[in-house]
Design brief:
Blueprint: E1 6-12, E2 21-28, E3 36-45, H1 48-55, E4 84-92, E5 104-107, E6 110-114, E7 117-124, E8 136-140, E9 144-146, H2 153-157, H3 160-172, E10 180-183, H4 189-200, E11 204-209, H5 214-220, E12 224-227, H6 232-236, E13 241-246, H7 253-259, E14 260-268, H8 281-286, E15 290-293, H9 301-310, E16 318-323, H10 327-336, E17 342-346
Parallel strand pairs: 10-11, 10-13, 11-12, 13-14, 14-15, 16-17
Antiparallel strand pairs: 1-2, 3-4, 3-8, 3-17, 4-5, 5-9, 6-7
Helix pairs in contact: 3-4, 3-9
Length: about 350
C-alpha cells in the first residue's frame, strides 16, 4: 500500500486563538522510522487538551512560557494537533512486520516511545509530536492498537483520549464493584466515559451535571445525578462516597473531600472550574485520604480499553461530526458544552 508525498491537514502556528490554526494542503506526509507505522487518519476527536495547548492554558505563568504544554516541555511550531485517532496503517518501518499494513487501529494518546527511543517523560500525541489533524500521521508501532469492531470510524475516534483518561483514573483509584463514586463534569467527554466505565466495573455512580442532561446520564448508568449548583453535602451526606473522580475543581472543591469517607480516594484529570482550590490539610490527613493526579496512562489501561470496546461493554457517544476543514467551528461548539459526549472531525 502506498500513500502520497504531500498531504492536507491543520497546523497550529503558535499560542493564541482559533486564528492560529491554518489549513494546508502542502504538508509533507510522514515517513516511518524503524519502529514506526504511518496511519491514514479517518477520524479524529476534539479534546480539551487541543484547546488548552493552543491557548497556553497549561502554563503556570506567562502564556509564552516554556511550560505551556501539558508536560512542561516547550512546544515547537508549526504543530499538527489531534490526540484521538482512528485510522488504517498504510506503511511500516523496517523493524515492523508488513502484516500490520491494512490494520484498523486506534492510537494510544500517551506516548512512551518516539523517534526510535524510549522516552523518560511520556509525550502526548499531538502536543510534543504531530498528531491526527492531518491526512496521515506517524506513531511508534506499539502505540497503534489494532481493533476489531463494527463501529464507524467517527465512533471509534470518540474513545482514545476521553475513555483512556477515564479508565486511568478508575484504575489509579482502584474503583471496585459496589463502591460509590461521584463524577464531576459528568456530561463531557471524559465525564460521560467515566460514568460508563465505572458502571461496567459494577460501581454505583453519582453524576454531577446540569438538570437538562440528568436523564441522559441516568441512561448511561448513573444511579443518581446532582445539579452542579446543588449543595453536595445536604444532597448526599458527609462521608458517603468511596471515590471522587474530578474533572472540574473550582470553588466547590472542598466539599468534594467532605463527601469522602475515611480512607476515601480522590482522582483528578481536569480543572475546568478553576485550577486554584482551597485545601484544609487536616481533612487530608485526619481522614486518611489518597490523592491521585492522573495524566500519564498506566501501561495496561489502553489495552484494557480496546478489549472493553471489542466486547461492547461501553458505547460511543458522538454528539456531532465536522469535516476537518471546519475545525474552528468544531472547537467553538466544543467550548459551548451544549452536548453530551464527543465532537469528532472526519477526514476524506
Amino acid at each position: 500500500m502506498t500513500y502520497p508525498e504531500k498531504m492536507y491537514g491543520v497546523v497550529l502556528n503558535g499560542h493564541g486563538g482559533p486564528e492560529m490554526l491554518a489549513w494546508r494542503d502542502d504538508l509533507m506526509a510522514p515517513l516511518p522510522g524503524k519502529n514506526d507505522v504511518v496511519v491514514r487518519v479517518s477520524a479524529a476527536g476534539v479534546n480539551n487538551t487541543d484547546i488548552n495547548t493552543r491557548t497556553a492554558w497549561y502554563s503556570k505563568g506567562d502564556a509564552a512560557a516554556d511550560d505551556a504544554t501539558w508536560s512542561g516541555t516547550p512546544l515547537t511550531f508549526p504543530r499538527i494537533q489531534g490526540a484521538d485517532v482512528c485510522g488504517e496503517i498504510v506503511a511500516v518501518g523496517d523493524a515492523i512486520d508488513n502484516s500490520r499494513i491494512g490494520e484498523r487501529i486506534l492510537i494510544e494518546p500517551c506516548i512512551r516511545e518516539a523517534n526510535g527511543r524510549k522516552l523518560k517523560t511520556p509525550w502526548y500525541f499531538g502536543s510534543e509530536c504531530d498528531g491526527g489533524f492531518a491526512q496521515y500521521t506517524r506513531v511508534a508501532s506499539c502505540h497503534a492498537h489494532a481493533i476489531t469492531s463494527d463501529l464507524t470510524d467517527a465512533e471509534l475516534a470518540s474513545f482514545p483520549c476521553s475513555y483512556s483518561t477515564a479508565e486511568n483514573m478508575l484504575t489509579r483509584a482502584k474503583v471496585c464493584k459496589d463502591e460509590t463514586i461521584l463524577v464531576t463534569g459528568a456530561s463531557g467527554g471524559v465525564g460521560s466515559a467515566t460514568v460508563q466505565m465505572a458502571q461496567a466495573r459494577g460501581a454505583n455512580v453519582i453524576a454531577v451535571t446540569s438538570a437538562s442532561k440528568a436523564k441522559a446520564l441516568m441512561k448511561l448508568g448513573a444511579l443518581k445525578t446532582l445539579d452542579r449548583n446543588d449543595e453536595f453535602i445536604s444532597e448526599i451526606g458527609a462521608g458517603k462516597v468511596d471515590v471522587v473522580i474530578d474533572l472540574v475543581a473550582g470553588p466547590k472543591w472542598p466539599s468534594l473531600l467532605d463527601l469522602l469517607r475515611p480512607g476515601g480516594r480522590y482522582a483528578v484529570a481536569g480543572a475546568i472550574g478553576g485550577p486554584i482550590v482551597e485545601l484544609d490539610v487536616r481533612t487530608l490527613y485526619l481522614k486518611d485520604l489518597s490523592f491521585f493526579g492522573c495524566t500519564v496512562l498506566e501501561p495496561e489501561v489502553f489495552g484494557n480499553l480496546i478489549r472493553r470496546i471489542e466486547r461492547k461493554e461501553i458505547a460511543p457517544l458522538v454528539a456531532e461530526t465536522y469535516p476537518l476543514r471546519e475545525i474552528t467551528a468544531a472547537q467553538k461548539a466544543f467550548g459551548e458544552k451544549g452536548y453530551i459526549g464527543k465532537i469528532v472531525l472526519e477526514l476524506n
